[in-house]
Structure to design on (395 residues):
């Protein structure tokens, strides 16, 4: 496909795309997930500013703006310790408006990942407003009390609402006239590297087989009791957990000789770890924080050719479980049995593996991040046109 910047150069008179200012509760240099996949693609044809939540430290308020590979400009507010909340938001407002002025940002789309950003962004005049609701943040541990009210206000001003999964779509579709479901997509080429021989990462190389692995954030969404019971039930299996520990005390993690916590890894490293697993895991707890999740790792694991076992998360059961792409199991005994069955049926050299991989690839071909980006971009173009009084476009 022709790169956007080349396409624009080859079409004289094409109006430049509005800049995109993204207000996020997630940090760019944390786990590489939905915001990074999408913003990196938008940065191909427009300037993208990714504004993070503040970091508190000594010294006066300032905004650090730095470019990341791919062209996204990441803005990190740095504020003095001890500011009251009203002053925090006032400082963020001043820094944001200063950034827009300093960079000559006058025509822009405002993209929210968190409704809390309304506290410092109200009063701006964007070309369109997008709310990309990738999680039900009000159900997460430590959610601000004001979040629900700010979401109500955000839904009133948004031109478009995108949701990170089907469950969230069903929860939001009656609350806004233009809600669109964009479940977890996939960079199949990147994770497909795990189907080929990969160099064994040094910290995984000495771990015996079979290996069953998880990558992602380790927080209140992980069922630590299930993980401990499964590790106890199969002491010869090695359970590999990759990712940062967030919002829970690391001391609460179960410790076993066959449980290995390898820490956070770069996005580029993940296929090499995945290639060394005999099965991939999604041991999510059944609680409020997992009620609406649509794990990005589901298609990533599958693109890597690993058998997958998950607890019954709604957006995993439908469609992955219903299509027999992923094994679903609720308790430790069933989880272990499903993993054993998956490794036997779908492991390297098994008679069913090639037919399963063909089914996986056909399904994944419908949901690339590039395809998701193009659909979102078309919807945004339509919203900008409508605000400017142009002809109606895609709804």
């Amino acid at each position: 496909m022709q790169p956007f910047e080349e396409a624009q150069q080859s079409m004289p008179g094409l109006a430049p795309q509005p800049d995109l200012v993204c207000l996020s509760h997630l940090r760019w240099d944390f786990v590489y997930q939905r915001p990074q996949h999408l913003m990196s693609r938008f940065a191909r044809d427009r300037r993208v500013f990714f504004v993070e939540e503040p970091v508190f430290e000594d010294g006066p308020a300032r905004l650090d703006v730095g470019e990341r590979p791919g062209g996204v400009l990441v803005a990190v507010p740095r504020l003095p310790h001890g500011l009251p909340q009203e002053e925090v938001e006032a400082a963020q407002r001043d820094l944001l408006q200063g950034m827009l002025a300093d960079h000559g940002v006058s025509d822009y789309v405002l993209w929210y990942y968190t409704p809390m950003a309304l506290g410092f962004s109200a009063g701006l005049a964007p070309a369109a407003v997008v709310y990309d609701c990738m999680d039900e943040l009000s159900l997460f541990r430590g959610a601000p009390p004001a979040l629900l009210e700010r979401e109500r206000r955000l839904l009133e001003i948004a031109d478009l609402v995108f949701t990170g999964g089907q469950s969230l779509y069903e929860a939001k579709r009656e609350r806004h006239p233009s809600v669109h479901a964009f479940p977890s997509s996939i960079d199949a080429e990147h994770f497909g590297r795990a189907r080929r021989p990969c160099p064994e990462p040094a910290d995984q190389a000495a771990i015996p087989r079979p290996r069953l692995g998880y990558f992602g954030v380790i927080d209140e969404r992980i069922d630590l009791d299930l993980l401990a019971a499964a590790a106890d039930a199969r002491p010869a299996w090695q359970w590999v957990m990759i990712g940062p520990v967030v919002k829970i005390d690391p001391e609460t993690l179960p410790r076993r000789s066959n449980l290995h916590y390898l820490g956070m890894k770069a996005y580029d490293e993940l296929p090499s770890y995945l290639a060394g697993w005999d099965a991939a895991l999604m041991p999510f707890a059944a609680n409020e924080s997992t009620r609406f999740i649509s794990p990005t790792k589901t298609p990533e694991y599958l693109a890597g050719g690993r058998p997958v076992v998950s607890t019954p998360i709604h957006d995993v059961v439908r469609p992955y479980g219903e299509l027999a792409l992923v094994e679903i199991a609720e308790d430790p005994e069933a989880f272990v049995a499903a993993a054993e069955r998956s490794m036997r049926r779908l492991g390297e050299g098994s008679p069913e593996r090639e037919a399963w991989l063909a089914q996986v690839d056909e399904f994944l071909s419908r949901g690339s991040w590039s395809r998701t980006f193009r659909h979102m971009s078309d919807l945004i173009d339509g919203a900008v046109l409508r605000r400017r009084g142009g002809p109606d476009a895609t709804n």
